[in-house]
Write a structure and sequence with these properties.
Layout: E1 4-9, H1 17-30, E2 35-40, H2 42-45, H3 52-69, E3 77-80, H4 86-95, H5 100-104, H6 107-115, H7 121-136, E4 141-143, H8 149-166, E5 177-179, H9 209-216, H10 240-247, H11 250-261, H12 267-293, H13 296-325, H14 332-338
Parallel strand pairs: 1-2, 2-3, 4-5
Bound molecules: adenosine monophosphate and tryptophan (TRP).
Length: 340
């Protein structure tokens, strides 16, 4: 069987270049080599405060962004989590074999609960649902950014716990591994923290060229470079050098290194050389997204197709899990009792 990959993304509205470089671009490449499942995780999203009308729009916009970035609904199974109820079904099952302590020590939980007055159970159980997402498809590999590595460790704990209790002779669930990109952690425009929607330090994947330039121009660079004549160190430049490595051809990256260390280019020159290379990759994505925004039927059809394909696999996993656990799937009680 072709190895399976699974990844999820929250319908947080617009994609930013951190999501794109850390995860989405990788999916677009991997969909040619693996059986690929990409899920817009709206059940995860509702663990944070939200407006119902807003959520539907964000889910739609996320689908547009993913399709525009190159996720191909004929190759990959692209779907919305809440359209496949087996995700929450398996999450409940996993809750019964996951120690509370494992959930309480998750860094993402500690950070989120510190910000909330009243902490909901869904915030704690968030990574259990994530484990269910992945294991429902028996996926081996999970292409994500670095911030998801701890959640994946938990997925492996869940898998091991379930296997040792219900299928000790031959493990039923795999132990999924992260698959990181070289750009596993893109810094935000403040140069202080990772690029993140909630920190407001992003460049949107679909932003107009002028808006991108307005954000690049004031972005911080190597603090030792006060003047153009000060020699710089690219590795101390938190954003621009990283983006050159992601978007510019190798010879440009070498030119940047030489001209920065040799104080031949100012930082604005360096940013000017970056912009067209970014736009070369982002403009076709922006144009494709505009086309899709105007064609809701096409987006819906892609998601419906994905949900149908996902459910076929999800149902089969749940059927087997129920059998192994002694839960009553259709026909099971009659069959089990007549075998006595
Ligand atoms: P999220 O928007 O938090 O649902 O993240 C979607 C995907 O993008 C996950 O695989 C994250 O690990 C990845 N990601 C988010 N922010 C960044 C970033 N600043 N750098 C690299 N990857 C990121
Ligand atoms: N927690 C992930 C994030 O915030 C989203 C996610 C949910 C996910 N389920 C997943 C990622 C399964 C990978 C696999 O980015």
């Amino acid at each position: 069987m072709m190895a399976r990959i699974f990844s999820g993304i929250q319908p947080s509205g617009d994609l930013h270049i951190g999501n794109y470089l850390g995860a989405v671009k990788n999916w677009v490449q991997l969909q040619h080599q693996f059986e690929t499942f990409i899920c817009i995780v709206d059940y995860h999203a509702i663990t944070a405060p939200y407006e119902p009308a807003d959520l539907v729009r964000r889910t739609h916009d996320m689908a547009v962004g993913l399709l525009a970035a190159g996720v191909d609904p004929e190759k990959a199974t692209l779907f919305v989590q809440s359209q496949v109820p087996e995700h929450t079904e398996l999450a409940w099952i996993f809750n019964t074999i996951t120690p509370l302590g494992e959930l309480e020590r998750q860094v993402a939980f500690k950070e989120k609960s510190a910000r909330q007055e009243q902490v909901m159970a869904g915030t704690l159980n968030y990574p259990v649902l994530q484990a269910a997402d992945i294991l429902l498809y028996l996926a081996d590999l999970v292409p994500v950014g670095e911030d998801q590595v701890q959640h994946l460790e938990l997925s492996r704990v869940v898998s091991r716990n379930w296997n040792s209790r219900f299928s000790p002779a031959k493990p039923f669930f795999p132990e999924p591994q992260p698959r990181l990109t070289p750009t596993r952690r893109i810094m935000g425009l403040d140069g202080q923290a990772k690029m993140s929607k909630s920190l407001g330090n992003t460049i949107g994947l679909l932003e107009e060229p002028d808006a991108i330039w307005e954000k690049l121009r004031p972005a911080p660079t190597d603090p030792a470079r006060q003047r153009k004549t000060d020699a710089g160190e690219p590795d101390k430049c938190p954003i621009i050098y990283q983006l050159h490595k992601a978007f510019s051809p190798e010879e440009t990256v070498r030119e940047v290194e030489e001209n920065c260390r040799g104080a031949k280019w100012g930082c604005v020159d360096c940013k000017k050389s970056l912009l067209p290379n970014m736009l070369a990759e982002l403009t076709p994505i922006r144009e494709k997204a505009r086309e899709l925004q105007a064609d809701r039927a096409q987006v819906s059809a892609a998601l419906d197709l994905g949900a149908t394909k996902a459910r076929t696999v999800a149902r089969e996993t749940i059927k087997q899990v129920k059998d192994m656990m002694g839960l009553a799937r259709e026909g099971l009680i009659a069959n089990a009792m007549s075998a006595r």
